[in-house]
Amino acid sequence: MSNEANGGLLAVAGVSRHFGGVHALSGVSLAVAEGEVHALIGPNGAGKTTLIHQLSGAQTPDAGTIRFAGEDVTRLPMHARVARGIARSWQVTNVFARLTALDNVALAVQGRQRDWGGSFRFWAPVDKERAIVDEAATWLAEVGLAGRESTVAGSLAHGEQRQLELALALATKPRLLLLDEPMAGMGPEESERVVALIEHLGRKVTLLLVEHDMDAVFRLADRISVLVGGRLICTGLPDEVRAHPEVRKAYLGEEMA
Ligand SMILES: Nc1ncnc2c1ncn2[C@@H]1O[C@H](COP(=O)(O)OP(=O)(O)OP(=O)(O)O)[C@@H](O)[C@H]1O
């Protein structure tokens, strides 16, 4: 069955999650089609990060289902979801500050090979090492870090560290990449670089992007979903979302002008 027939590459149905008395997500349903850049927006505390946690496997919903490529992944642990092609860029804990950028990505490539048996299994160690390092260099180039291979990760600029995290996520060869506020804490120049990078990645992998920068969202997204108070109030094309009365109300007209 095609992804479309299943309601999208990612199909979220009736997902709820509470923390004590706080209903962070209430019956959220959302479909992400293969190949699209789908932005998830909403005011502070709307539940965006909580939804990303349910999708990545960092948390499990109280109710509802999450299907990925037709398979129910609602209760799968994070590593099993990564193996199926769901990656998350916000993986700071995976960066070894004292290793070089190249070594960091090489470890991620090796991890993928080790964890779910890759094509390098039957290679001689020396060829295997070369193949891993070559692939790692390709991912670094893909995120705009060519030339920074030998730089120790801890010495990279803030924006470059985010680019490195993206390379680590890409090294898992995802079909869906979850990006939670990729431009957070960046100045205009770094943000512009990351927007261009996301535009580039969006042509290669399906993206679900949480972002507060509305200029970036409206520039990058094919479709936008809006969460307010844990409820999904609309999904649509950028122009439809911009014109939606409830969305304008939620944002008090400010960013949507
Ligand atoms: N681990 C937790 N324990 C208690 N409450 C939580 C927890 N995680 C999230 N919440 C609450 O759930 C609600 C949704 O939070 P969430 O971080 O998902 O929102 P958000 O849309 O990502 O916000 P922001 O844009 O400010 O990052 C908030 O009220 C938050 O305080």
Polypeptide structure, described:
This protein is α/β, with parallel strands linked by helices and 257 residues long. The protein contains 9 helices and 10 strands. It has helices at residues 48-56, 78-84, 101-115, 125-142, 158-170, 188-202, 214-220, 238-243, 245-250, and strands at residues 10-19, 22-32, 37-41, 63-68, 71-72, 86-88, 176-180, 206-210, 223-228, 231-236. α6 links the parallel β7 and β8. The termini are far apart. The mean pLDDT is 89. Adenosine-5'-triphosphate is lined by residues 19, 22, 24, 42, 44-50. GO terms for molecular function: ATP binding; ATP hydrolysis activity.
* Strand ordering within the main sheet: 6-7-8-3-9-10
Small molecules in complex? adenosine-5'-triphosphate
Low-confidence stretches: none
Please provide the count of β strands: 10
So how many helices? Answer: 9
Helix-strand topology string: EEEHEEHEHHHEHEHEEHH
How would you name the oligomeric state of the polypeptide chains in this document? single chain
How far is the first residue's CA from the last residue's CA?
Answer: 41 Å
Gyration radius (Cα, Å) is 19 Å
Q: Considering DSSP H and I runs of 4 or more, what fraction of the residues is helical?
A: 25-40%
- Mean of pLDDT: 89
